[in-house]
Write a structure and sequence with these properties.
It contains 17 helices and no strands. The protein is mostly helical.
């Protein structure tokens, strides 16, 4: 009997591992509905599966369902509090929810963000992304909820030995938060030089130009990034997102985003959001039929993505 139970458990663990790989494929393909369904089944079958709860948190985060993202990350942390990425994603979900609620609710949520990012850095001190998120929080959050220019500078200095490019970009974000565009641009160019022209650093400079509405420089810098043989799929997505968000070269943005969708897509740049951005670009260009088609493509992958739902309703009158 005990041998049979052991065999069943072994088989279940094997299935669980296979399912986790399948979920990763789903998330990279932007198939959020499928991923949420598979992960929900996993946590129902095994309520102690911290990683499944962590993946659910990310899936809900990308469709901007922040309540579900928060609750699932909190459950993952409860089950395994020493995993840095659970704290990182909880901090992101709390921060983004704070941007979508009233002032009083936002204050309470924002106070919880910094400690989650700080815990992520404590648990994984070499995780540059966790450091970057914490530095951005320190730079842009008000002092009453934990923001601090001094802490942002100190964190950037601590990061120099680990990743000098990331440290320069942290300094650029700090100066951007202070609206010192000259200093922000200077630090972004330091990052580009240190990275030997990495497209990601070049796009960060483009974003700084966009904040100043220096459209010609922004678009030229985006083209510089996209001409690099080192560009990643995520760089294509970010470039398209920058153009659509700023309402510039919308036809070019559609082309860039379609190029992204035709190749390898990644979880951090969801395919459904690329379709949404294409829809938004077409809507701004006045092509409602093309916009509706793109919004429907987004909803085929993420049926509860509210922005695409709202976009489709709008273009359909």
């Amino acid at each position: 009997m005990y041998r049979r139970i052991g065999l069943v458990l072994a088989l279940l663990l094997g299935v669980s591992g296979f399912a986790a790989d399948s979920v990763a494929v789903m998330l990279n393909a932007g198939r959020v509905d499928d991923a949420i369904k598979a992960l929900s089944a996993q946590v129902t079958a095994n309520p102690q599966n911290a990683e499944a709860f962590g993946q659910l948190c990310r899936a809900y985060y990308f469709v901007e369902d922040y309540d579900n993202a928060i609750s699932n990350c909190e459950r993952a942390i409860q089950l395994d509090p020493k995993i840095a990425r659970y704290h990182l994603w909880l901090g992101r979900a709390l921060g983004d929810k704070a941007d979508h609620v009233g002032p009083i609710g936002a204050m309470g949520l924002a106070r919880k963000v910094g400690p989650q990012f700080e815990r992520a850095v404590q648990l994984a001190p070499n995780d540059v992304q966790a450091r970057t998120d914490l530095a951005e929080f320190y730079s842009f959050a008000p002092g009453m909820v934990g923001g601090s220019d001094d802490k942002a500078r100190s964190l950037a200095e601590e990061t120099v030995k680990l990743d000098p490019v990331a440290a320069a970009n942290m300094r650029a974000q700090l100066e951007l938060s202070r609206k010192d565009y000259t200093a922000s641009e200077r630090e972004a160019k330091v990052a580009i030089e240190l990275s030997k022209g990495s497209p990601r650093s070049v796009l960060e400079l483009a974003r700084i130009y966009g904040k100043q509405k220096r459209w010609r420089e922004m678009e030229a810098t985006i083209q510089q990034a996209l001409s690099s043989p080192r560009k990643s799929p995520q760089d294509l997505f970010f470039a398209g997102e920058l153009l659509v968000g700023n309402g510039r070269n919308l036809a070019g943005a559609v082309e860039i985003l379609r190029s992204y969708l035709s190749g390898q897509t990644v979880e951090e740049a969801p395919a459904f959001r690329a379709y949404f951005l294409i829809g938004k670009a077409y809507e701004k260009m006045g092509d409602k039929a093309a916009a509706a088609k793109a919004y429907r493509s987004a909803l085929e992958l993420a049926s509860n993505y509210r922005r695409a739902q709202d976009g489709l309703r709008h273009v359909n009158g």
